[in-house]
Amino acid sequence: MKLLLDTNILLWAAAGTFPKSAEEYILNDSNELYFSPASIWEVVIKRSLNRSDFDVDPLALHNGLIDNGYQQLVITAKHALLTGTLPYIHKDPFDRIILAQTLSEGLTLMTSDEKISAYPAPIVFVRK
User: Fold this and answer.
1) Residue 20 sits in a domain of what CATH number?
2) Exposed, middle or buried by CB within 10 Å (0-12, 13-18, 19+), for 49?
3) pLDDT exceeding 70 applies to what percent of the chain?
């Protein structure tokens, strides 16, 4: 299975704290794991806000994902255009582009976001 992991799942995977329900997918060597540059961008923005509850180093996250075999899924204009056709179930631009990438590239999205899981798309929903 080709899985695109949303930002929360990526952060949990990087920290080794993902839920058991995600473990069977993430640790399964037959699955291909992808991340979106939108997730890295989201981490960069959150880090730049100097929030006391968020200290993730975006470069370390990126390098760790690459080092652990995650594949980066490039964002294209096709993905951006597809976001305009999505119903407004979820308004977060990072989540919308990740969902558009999922749909456009025939992937399955792994998410912990209930709003995203309401879309008619191939989704693996996990709870923390």
Assistant:
1) 3.40.50.1010
2) exposed
3) 100
